[in-house]
Amino acid sequence: MTLQLHDQTVAITGAANGIGLAIARAFLEAGARVIAIDLNAEALARFQSSDPDRIEVICASVADFSALKAGLADRTIDHLVCAAAVGSGKMGFPFWNLDPGDWSRVLDITLMGTVNTVHACVPALLEDDTARKSVLLLASVAGQIGSQTDPPYSAAKAATINFAQLAAKDFAPYGIRVNAMSPGMVKTELNRAVFESSKEANTTTYEAWAEEKIKRVSPLGRWQEVDEFGAMAVFLASEQGRNITGQTINIDGGQVMHS
Ligand SMILES: NC(=O)c1ccc[n+]([C@@H]2O[C@H](COP(=O)([O-])OP(=O)(O)OC[C@H]3O[C@@H](n4cnc5c(N)ncnc54)[C@H](O)[C@@H]3O)[C@@H](O)[C@H]2O)c1
Protein backbone atom coordinates (compact mmCIF):
# COMPACT_ATOMS: atom_id res chain seq x y z
CA MET A 1 0.00 0.00 0.00
CA THR A 2 1.48 3.35 -1.01
CA LEU A 3 0.66 6.48 0.95
CA GLN A 4 3.24 8.63 -0.80
CA LEU A 5 2.30 12.28 -1.35
CA HIS A 6 5.47 13.50 -3.07
CA ASP A 7 5.02 16.70 -5.11
CA GLN A 8 1.85 17.52 -3.22
CA THR A 9 1.18 20.40 -0.86
CA VAL A 10 -1.05 20.42 2.20
CA ALA A 11 -2.25 23.53 4.06
CA ILE A 12 -3.00 22.85 7.73
CA THR A 13 -4.56 25.20 10.30
CA GLY A 14 -3.75 24.75 13.98
CA ALA A 15 -0.49 23.21 12.78
CA ALA A 16 1.73 24.57 15.56
CA ASN A 17 0.54 22.20 18.30
CA GLY A 18 -1.31 19.04 19.21
CA ILE A 19 -3.21 17.11 16.55
CA GLY A 20 -2.57 19.67 13.77
CA LEU A 21 1.20 19.45 14.34
CA ALA A 22 1.10 15.63 14.31
CA ILE A 23 -0.84 15.72 11.04
CA ALA A 24 1.72 18.14 9.56
CA ARG A 25 4.56 15.79 10.55
CA ALA A 26 2.76 12.79 9.03
CA PHE A 27 2.33 14.65 5.71
CA LEU A 28 6.05 15.53 5.73
CA GLU A 29 6.87 11.86 6.33
CA ALA A 30 4.73 10.96 3.31
CA GLY A 31 6.81 13.36 1.19
CA ALA A 32 4.43 16.33 1.01
CA ARG A 33 5.19 20.03 1.46
CA VAL A 34 3.36 21.79 4.30
CA ILE A 35 1.87 25.26 4.67
CA ALA A 36 1.39 25.57 8.43
CA ILE A 37 -1.17 28.17 9.57
CA ASP A 38 -1.48 29.14 13.24
CA LEU A 39 -1.63 32.07 15.64
CA ASN A 40 1.35 30.88 17.65
CA ALA A 41 4.37 32.46 15.89
CA GLU A 42 6.95 30.95 18.21
CA ALA A 43 5.69 27.37 17.83
CA LEU A 44 5.35 27.87 14.06
CA ALA A 45 9.00 29.02 13.82
CA ARG A 46 10.14 26.00 15.84
CA PHE A 47 8.26 23.65 13.50
CA GLN A 48 9.57 25.39 10.38
CA SER A 49 13.16 25.06 11.55
CA SER A 50 12.73 21.25 11.56
CA ASP A 51 12.49 21.20 7.72
CA PRO A 52 12.80 24.74 6.27
CA ASP A 53 12.83 23.53 2.64
CA ARG A 54 9.43 21.89 2.86
CA ILE A 55 7.60 23.94 5.49
CA GLU A 56 6.12 27.40 4.93
CA VAL A 57 4.30 29.18 7.72
CA ILE A 58 1.48 31.70 7.84
CA CYS A 59 0.93 33.38 11.19
CA ALA A 60 -2.74 34.38 11.14
CA SER A 61 -6.00 33.83 12.94
CA VAL A 62 -8.48 31.62 11.13
CA ALA A 63 -11.11 34.11 12.29
CA ASP A 64 -9.53 36.68 9.94
CA PHE A 65 -10.79 35.84 6.45
CA SER A 66 -8.86 38.70 4.77
CA ALA A 67 -5.56 37.54 6.28
CA LEU A 68 -6.22 33.96 5.15
CA LYS A 69 -7.13 35.07 1.63
CA ALA A 70 -4.00 37.21 1.38
CA GLY A 71 -1.75 34.50 2.84
CA LEU A 72 -3.13 31.72 0.66
CA ALA A 73 -3.47 33.67 -2.62
CA ASP A 74 -1.65 32.19 -5.64
CA ARG A 75 -0.56 29.06 -3.79
CA THR A 76 -0.72 25.50 -4.97
CA ILE A 77 -2.82 23.51 -2.52
CA ASP A 78 -3.58 19.81 -3.05
CA HIS A 79 -4.93 19.06 0.40
CA LEU A 80 -6.39 21.15 3.20
CA VAL A 81 -6.70 20.15 6.86
CA CYS A 82 -8.58 22.43 9.28
CA ALA A 83 -7.58 21.66 12.87
CA ALA A 84 -7.57 25.08 14.59
CA ALA A 85 -10.22 25.32 17.31
CA VAL A 86 -10.88 26.70 20.77
CA GLY A 87 -13.33 25.93 23.55
CA SER A 88 -15.12 28.48 25.72
CA GLY A 89 -13.08 27.69 28.83
CA LYS A 90 -16.36 27.26 30.70
CA MET A 91 -18.42 24.20 31.67
CA GLY A 92 -22.00 23.54 30.65
CA PHE A 93 -23.99 21.00 32.76
CA PRO A 94 -26.40 22.86 32.22
CA PHE A 95 -25.84 25.15 29.23
CA TRP A 96 -27.10 28.17 31.22
CA ASN A 97 -23.89 28.09 33.23
CA LEU A 98 -22.65 30.00 30.16
CA ASP A 99 -23.93 33.34 28.90
CA PRO A 100 -25.04 33.64 25.27
CA GLY A 101 -22.04 35.98 24.84
CA ASP A 102 -19.68 33.08 25.64
CA TRP A 103 -20.62 31.48 22.30
CA SER A 104 -19.29 34.17 19.95
CA ARG A 105 -15.52 33.58 20.21
CA VAL A 106 -15.92 29.79 19.99
CA LEU A 107 -18.15 30.01 16.91
CA ASP A 108 -15.91 32.66 15.28
CA ILE A 109 -12.81 30.46 15.57
CA THR A 110 -13.99 26.86 15.75
CA LEU A 111 -16.77 27.04 13.16
CA MET A 112 -16.22 30.21 11.12
CA GLY A 113 -12.44 29.70 11.19
CA THR A 114 -12.99 26.43 9.32
CA VAL A 115 -15.50 27.99 6.93
CA ASN A 116 -13.11 30.94 6.28
CA THR A 117 -10.19 28.62 5.57
CA VAL A 118 -12.09 26.42 3.14
CA HIS A 119 -13.45 29.53 1.34
CA ALA A 120 -9.94 31.01 1.12
CA CYS A 121 -8.66 27.77 -0.45
CA VAL A 122 -11.44 27.34 -3.04
CA PRO A 123 -9.52 29.04 -5.92
CA ALA A 124 -6.42 26.89 -5.30
CA LEU A 125 -8.44 23.70 -4.88
CA LEU A 126 -10.30 24.25 -8.16
CA GLU A 127 -7.09 24.71 -10.13
CA ASP A 128 -5.16 22.04 -12.07
CA ASP A 129 -5.43 18.36 -11.20
CA THR A 130 -8.45 18.43 -8.89
CA ALA A 131 -8.92 14.63 -8.87
CA ARG A 132 -6.15 14.06 -6.35
CA LYS A 133 -7.28 16.80 -3.95
CA SER A 134 -8.95 16.53 -0.56
CA VAL A 135 -10.20 18.51 2.43
CA LEU A 136 -10.29 17.23 6.00
CA LEU A 137 -12.10 19.05 8.81
CA LEU A 138 -11.36 18.22 12.44
CA ALA A 139 -14.70 17.74 14.18
CA SER A 140 -15.29 15.98 17.51
CA VAL A 141 -17.42 13.31 19.11
CA ALA A 142 -18.87 16.31 21.00
CA GLY A 143 -20.61 17.32 17.77
CA GLN A 144 -22.37 13.96 17.49
CA ILE A 145 -23.73 13.30 20.97
CA GLY A 146 -25.12 16.63 22.23
CA SER A 147 -22.17 16.84 24.59
CA GLN A 148 -23.04 19.08 27.58
CA THR A 149 -19.40 19.81 28.46
CA ASP A 150 -18.90 22.96 26.36
CA PRO A 151 -22.15 23.81 24.50
CA PRO A 152 -20.80 26.28 21.88
CA TYR A 153 -17.93 23.90 21.10
CA SER A 154 -20.36 20.97 20.62
CA ALA A 155 -22.57 23.09 18.36
CA ALA A 156 -19.58 24.31 16.32
CA LYS A 157 -18.43 20.72 15.78
CA ALA A 158 -21.93 19.53 14.78
CA ALA A 159 -22.01 22.34 12.20
CA THR A 160 -18.52 21.36 11.03
CA ILE A 161 -19.74 17.83 10.26
CA ASN A 162 -22.67 19.21 8.30
CA PHE A 163 -20.37 21.60 6.40
CA ALA A 164 -18.09 18.67 5.49
CA GLN A 165 -21.08 16.80 4.05
CA LEU A 166 -22.42 19.69 1.96
CA ALA A 167 -18.93 20.64 0.77
CA ALA A 168 -18.35 16.98 -0.20
CA LYS A 169 -21.40 17.24 -2.48
CA ASP A 170 -20.35 20.62 -3.92
CA PHE A 171 -16.77 19.51 -4.63
CA ALA A 172 -17.64 15.99 -5.88
CA PRO A 173 -18.11 17.01 -9.54
CA TYR A 174 -14.47 18.16 -9.50
CA GLY A 175 -13.25 14.90 -7.92
CA ILE A 176 -12.30 16.72 -4.70
CA ARG A 177 -13.12 14.75 -1.55
CA VAL A 178 -14.16 16.24 1.81
CA ASN A 179 -14.29 14.36 5.10
CA ALA A 180 -14.47 15.10 8.81
CA MET A 181 -12.40 13.36 11.46
CA SER A 182 -13.60 13.17 15.06
CA PRO A 183 -11.17 12.62 17.89
CA GLY A 184 -12.55 11.25 21.14
CA MET A 185 -10.10 12.31 23.82
CA VAL A 186 -6.48 13.32 23.24
CA LYS A 187 -4.17 14.78 25.87
CA THR A 188 -3.52 18.19 24.28
CA GLU A 189 -3.74 21.76 25.57
CA LEU A 190 -7.33 21.93 24.38
CA ASN A 191 -8.25 18.88 26.44
CA ARG A 192 -6.38 20.11 29.51
CA ALA A 193 -8.39 23.36 29.29
CA VAL A 194 -11.59 21.30 29.63
CA PHE A 195 -10.25 19.86 32.90
CA GLU A 196 -9.15 23.27 34.13
CA SER A 197 -12.66 24.66 33.68
CA SER A 198 -14.24 21.73 35.57
CA LYS A 199 -15.09 21.70 39.27
CA GLU A 200 -12.86 18.59 39.66
CA ALA A 201 -9.83 20.83 39.00
CA ASN A 202 -10.10 21.96 42.67
CA THR A 203 -9.93 18.43 44.04
CA THR A 204 -7.88 16.21 41.70
CA THR A 205 -5.11 16.20 39.10
CA TYR A 206 -5.48 16.25 35.32
CA GLU A 207 -3.98 12.74 35.10
CA ALA A 208 -6.41 11.28 37.66
CA TRP A 209 -9.40 13.02 36.04
CA ALA A 210 -8.31 11.80 32.61
CA GLU A 211 -7.82 8.22 33.77
CA GLU A 212 -11.30 8.05 35.29
CA LYS A 213 -13.02 9.81 32.38
CA ILE A 214 -11.58 7.70 29.57
CA LYS A 215 -12.61 4.45 31.29
CA ARG A 216 -16.12 5.81 31.74
CA VAL A 217 -16.73 7.10 28.19
CA SER A 218 -14.71 4.85 25.88
CA PRO A 219 -15.32 1.10 25.38
CA LEU A 220 -11.60 0.57 24.61
CA GLY A 221 -10.77 2.64 27.69
CA ARG A 222 -7.60 4.28 26.39
CA TRP A 223 -6.69 7.79 25.27
CA GLN A 224 -6.13 8.50 21.59
CA GLU A 225 -2.62 9.59 20.56
CA VAL A 226 -1.95 12.49 18.16
CA ASP A 227 -0.07 10.22 15.70
CA GLU A 228 -3.24 8.22 15.03
CA PHE A 229 -4.76 11.35 13.45
CA GLY A 230 -1.68 11.94 11.31
CA ALA A 231 -1.89 8.40 9.94
CA MET A 232 -5.60 8.67 9.13
CA ALA A 233 -5.21 12.14 7.58
CA VAL A 234 -2.49 10.89 5.21
CA PHE A 235 -4.54 7.80 4.32
CA LEU A 236 -7.59 9.95 3.50
CA ALA A 237 -5.50 12.32 1.35
CA SER A 238 -3.81 9.47 -0.50
CA GLU A 239 -4.93 7.52 -3.55
CA GLN A 240 -6.06 4.80 -1.11
CA GLY A 241 -8.83 7.11 0.10
CA ARG A 242 -10.12 7.87 -3.41
CA ASN A 243 -13.67 6.64 -2.75
CA ILE A 244 -14.09 8.13 0.70
CA THR A 245 -16.01 11.41 0.84
CA GLY A 246 -18.69 13.01 3.03
CA GLN A 247 -17.72 10.74 5.94
CA THR A 248 -17.05 11.44 9.59
CA ILE A 249 -14.27 9.14 10.70
CA ASN A 250 -14.24 8.69 14.47
CA ILE A 251 -10.97 7.83 16.17
CA ASP A 252 -12.41 7.56 19.64
CA GLY A 253 -11.99 4.05 21.04
CA GLY A 254 -15.65 3.33 20.22
CA GLN A 255 -17.12 6.26 22.18
CA VAL A 256 -19.54 6.87 19.29
CA MET A 257 -20.68 3.97 17.16
CA HIS A 258 -22.33 4.53 13.78
CA SER A 259 -25.26 2.29 12.90
N1 LIG B 1 -7.79 17.07 22.13
C1 LIG B 1 -8.95 16.45 22.08
O1 LIG B 1 -9.30 15.65 22.97
C2 LIG B 1 -9.89 16.72 20.94
C3 LIG B 1 -11.13 16.04 20.94
C4 LIG B 1 -12.01 16.27 19.91
C5 LIG B 1 -11.69 17.13 18.88
N2 LIG B 1 -10.49 17.78 18.88
C6 LIG B 1 -10.22 18.68 17.75
O2 LIG B 1 -8.94 18.45 17.19
C7 LIG B 1 -8.41 19.68 16.68
C8 LIG B 1 -7.04 19.94 17.25
O3 LIG B 1 -7.17 20.07 18.65
P1 LIG B 1 -5.93 19.93 19.66
O4 LIG B 1 -6.42 19.13 20.79
O5 LIG B 1 -4.72 19.53 18.92
O6 LIG B 1 -5.82 21.45 20.14
P2 LIG B 1 -4.53 22.30 20.61
O7 LIG B 1 -5.07 23.35 21.51
O8 LIG B 1 -3.44 21.43 21.11
O9 LIG B 1 -4.04 22.96 19.24
C9 LIG B 1 -4.86 23.88 18.57
C10 LIG B 1 -3.99 24.78 17.71
O10 LIG B 1 -4.87 25.73 17.09
C11 LIG B 1 -4.26 27.01 17.18
N3 LIG B 1 -5.28 28.06 17.16
C12 LIG B 1 -6.17 28.37 18.13
N4 LIG B 1 -6.90 29.42 17.75
C13 LIG B 1 -6.48 29.77 16.52
C14 LIG B 1 -6.85 30.78 15.60
N5 LIG B 1 -7.81 31.67 15.89
N6 LIG B 1 -6.22 30.84 14.41
C15 LIG B 1 -5.23 29.98 14.11
N7 LIG B 1 -4.83 29.00 14.94
C16 LIG B 1 -5.45 28.91 16.13
C17 LIG B 1 -3.51 27.00 18.49
O11 LIG B 1 -2.49 28.00 18.52
C18 LIG B 1 -2.95 25.58 18.50
O12 LIG B 1 -1.69 25.52 17.85
C19 LIG B 1 -9.43 20.77 17.04
O13 LIG B 1 -10.27 21.02 15.95
C20 LIG B 1 -10.20 20.14 18.19
O14 LIG B 1 -11.48 20.68 18.31
C21 LIG B 1 -9.59 17.60 19.89
Number of domains: 1
User: What is the rounded distance between the termini?
Assistant: 28 Å
How much strand content do the residues show? 5-15%
How do the strands line up in the largest sheet? 3-2-1-4-5-6-7
The radius of gyration computed from the alpha-carbon positions, rounded to a whole number of angstroms, is 18 Å
Unreliable stretches, pLDDT < 50, 5 or more residues? none
What would the average pLDDT be, to the nearest integer?
A: 97
Which ions and ligands are bound to the chains? nicotinamide-adenine-dinucleotide
Q: Helix-strand pattern, N to C?
A: EHEHEHEHEHEHHHE
Topology overview:
Blueprint: E1 9-13, H1 18-29, E2 33-38, H2 41-48, E3 55-59, H3 65-72, E4 79-82, H4 103-125, E5 134-138, H5 151-171, E6 177-183, H6 189-196, H7 206-217, H8 226-237, E7 248-251
Parallel strand pairs: 1-2, 1-4, 2-3, 4-5, 5-6, 6-7
Helix pairs in contact: 1-8, 3-4, 4-5
The chain binds nicotinamide-adenine-dinucleotide (NAD).
